[in-house]
Amino acid sequence: MELKNDLLIRAAKGEKVERTPVWLMRQAGRILPEYRAVRNSLSGFIELVKNPELAAEVTIQPVDILGVDAAIIFSDILVIPEAMGLPYEMVEKKGPWFPKTINSPEDLSNLKVADAESDLGYVLDAIKVTKKELDGRVPLIGFAGAPWTIFCYMIEGQGSKTFSKARKMLYNEPVMSDQLLQMITDSTIEYLRAQIAAGANIVQVFDSWAGILPSDHYQKFSMKYITQICDAIEEVPVTVFAKGAYFARPEMRHLNCETIGLDWNMGIAESRRLIGEGKTLQGNLDPCALYGSPSEIETATKKMLDDFGTSRHIANLGHGVYPDIDPEKVKVFIQTVKEYSAQLRAQ
Amino acid sequence: MELKNDLLIRAAKGEKVERTPVWLMRQAGRILPEYRAVRNSLSGFIELVKNPELAAEVTIQPVDILGVDAAIIFSDILVIPEAMGLPYEMVEKKGPWFPKTINSPEDLSNLKVADAESDLGYVLDAIKVTKKELDGRVPLIGFAGAPWTIFCYMIEGQGSKTFSKARKMLYNEPVMSDQLLQMITDSTIEYLRAQIAAGANIVQVFDSWAGILPSDHYQKFSMKYITQICDAIEEVPVTVFAKGAYFARPEMRHLNCETIGLDWNMGIAESRRLIGEGKTLQGNLDPCALYGSPSEIETATKKMLDDFGTSRHIANLGHGVYPDIDPEKVKVFIQTVKEYSAQLRAQ
Q1: Where does the pLDDT of residue B125 fall: very low under 50, low under 70, confident under 90, or very high at 90 and above?
Q2: What ipTM was predicted for this assembly?
Q3: Is B247–A264 a contact, with Cβ atoms under 8 angstroms apart?
Q4: pTM over 0.90
Q5: Which of A53, B8, B155, B334 is a plausible cystine mate for B21, CB 3.0–4.6 Å?
Q6: Can you name the residues that pair with A71 across neighbouring β-strands?
């Protein structure tokens, strides 16, 4: 089906666009009362992830309510460890928790490379339902966690400030670490391909814990696998968002992907210089800027648009939208991007 | 009293040294069984901080046991909010927790600028006891948190991945934020001066949450106050360690301090280029490298020393030592610095 609004896809490919496309990480869920109503009708977060009809509903909510230029499928990066044999729970106010974790090479024998169709069919179904209901209004973004970030959770079993247990594994069990990262990578490639086959128009790889690795380890234990993923996806544009990996920007220039996400610490001009003209950049307003007044949000958003310029940019925050942000403030951000970026091009 | 080993002080000042001095952030406490024996004789962490005799004992332990080139007074950055009127508790396995926090401009009226002598006498006493017992063997490092990091805890009341409550305050209450940051700064300057008067030979400012601010906010709400602190301390060298503030390195060149701490993500050559030749650099081995085998630690430490070169470097980890690190591994790090850095100079 042809997309009625394909700004995001064209911007990702580096084509000329009439205005800068805009969406928000974590837009599906969290901030909308309409989302919370759906979420509260079920017993938990994971139940919602596994319910294709309702996942599709909350995926589309921000398109209707906020006016974003893309939907992102409502799901979680941790469906991959679950599909590999390591189920997780989502503990209210605490985050993910894994009853079993990987502690030694022997534990790998309990894992398998995920089969997208049989293990993750609920995500693929949610994509199909969403696509049908979106009816080509905007593109649908599929996603997965980067192998390093998934590895962190599979070793650590929960969030952590240092992920020192996961990082210790890289030093003490480098062979096992490589094996596990490769299994995650293989699972992720098949999963993203299945998302694309189900209808995803673009896919994003989230490396949420990129920023805790020293540069040499990042090359060896993260970029290596992200590179494999980028090389394996040919049908749609790929976005890589490696939060905190400022030191890896020069190497990102060489990734076989279309778009690089920037977090809010990364300088725009510097990032463009390091990453080069060959990529679209996505981001990167400080998520906390949406706590400001409407006029402050407008000013900050315009400044961001000025700094990125009119080519190869997708507007977004520099991280997921925070749960207590007023949706009206989000609308100011979105509206400002739409109007001001069109003005900039008309000049 | 003259120092028998003044390598750290001379290295901080940019003087020639026979070998690179070495110490570890968080060396006082955490990893040593001898520390845990003292700690477990009391009811809690804060009781130890407030007991000058025992604080001195655990301050000196790493000098005797590990052979570091400096002692750092055993204390906590959160003694400042407590002295200003906001007491804290240390919750086992969870970290600091403040029963009262700052939520509005009105709350400032319950705070005061700390009086070092009357409110923080226990730290000054601990410094005096330590100095007496150290008997000039190595320098004693005093320290405080940077105003932004202290502000984070005073607003948020506990650790956080995003500190979005504290960061929201910068957007919504910039005047109050400045007032509170100034009160913390004034408290900190008096506190560091009192530490120096009590015997500290060098002081370090820890900006643990530097890395969550966008660059413009970092200038406005953190560097501004760190600059005041650096300008106010004249008697001894000052070290600034702003974890994650890679984007602020070009401005750190202009701080009126002797040493800049680098975290393990910051490239050594790049940092030297950005910060210039006028500062000593401190750091920055990945704390997780100490999970490796002795020969891996040796290799990583030598590489770090090669990269920093033989002038203006103080060896350290890129963050505090992790609690489950084997002290024997720490000794390998320290011994390698001592021997290899002397060899490098003999060549």
Answers
A1: very high
A2: 0.93
A3: no
A4: yes
A5: B8
A6: A140
